[in-house]
Amino acid sequence: QMADPFLYNPGDRSHYGCLGHEVQIEYLKAYVCRPSFFTDKAVILVHDVFGWRFPDIRYIVDLIAGHGYITICPDFFKGTEPWKSTDHWADFADWLKDHDPTKVDKEADVVLKYLKEQCGAKKIGIVGFSWGGMAVHHLMLKNPQLTAGVSLYGRIIRDSEERYNLLNPTFFIFGEKDHTISLDQILLLEEKLKQYCKVSYKIKVYPGQVHGFAQLKPEDMKPNDKPYIEEARNDMIDWIKMFV
Hints:
Residues 29-242 form the Dienelactone hydrolase domain. Helices cover 31% and strands 20% of the residues. By secondary structure, the protein is of the alpha/beta class. The longest helix is centred in the last third of the chain and has 18 residues, at 226-243. The protein starts with 20 loop residues before the first strand and ends with a helix.
């Protein structure tokens, strides 16, 4: 059986007791965590293929909220099944057809409206991991309401000029050992952004890191990776603080 090229193993994750709560927003469920004080700044978090209930993702929602942002992770799969570690890799392409990371505009609009009208948010950023990293790249080309984006190891899809004309500052985080994204693709992304992008952007590759590295909870980190994981998270937060 072919090894899952895109999917790290989510099976051996420790449990996580969340700090936030679940809400219903129109037709979407979402997980929200608010900081302990009032703020008019928010961050939308786009989950990976394992969906909005995945403990690692909820941990990151709480982490960002701890820095002073209303942080929300909607179910971008709209109640359909997320990918599971027991699913067969051969079925992934079919699953992806029904879970297209570039078809998230309607959900993003629903959540933006909620954040503005119900939470008083005036500045809203977006962060996404893997599948969500692709969604962030897409939304930063389409939605001017998002004041900044961080895309973590989202595969670089479709090479066309429209892929590089970002509307607002965007930070791309990659792992050096991510076998879903080649260094060539990252170099091409950099070259094209130089050519077409009119706003701030940043690309950073973290040494020795594999796909999915940045969302591990502390107890799931290997000691050698920990400094890079923490650096990536701090860089992510710094980018948000700079622009949101």
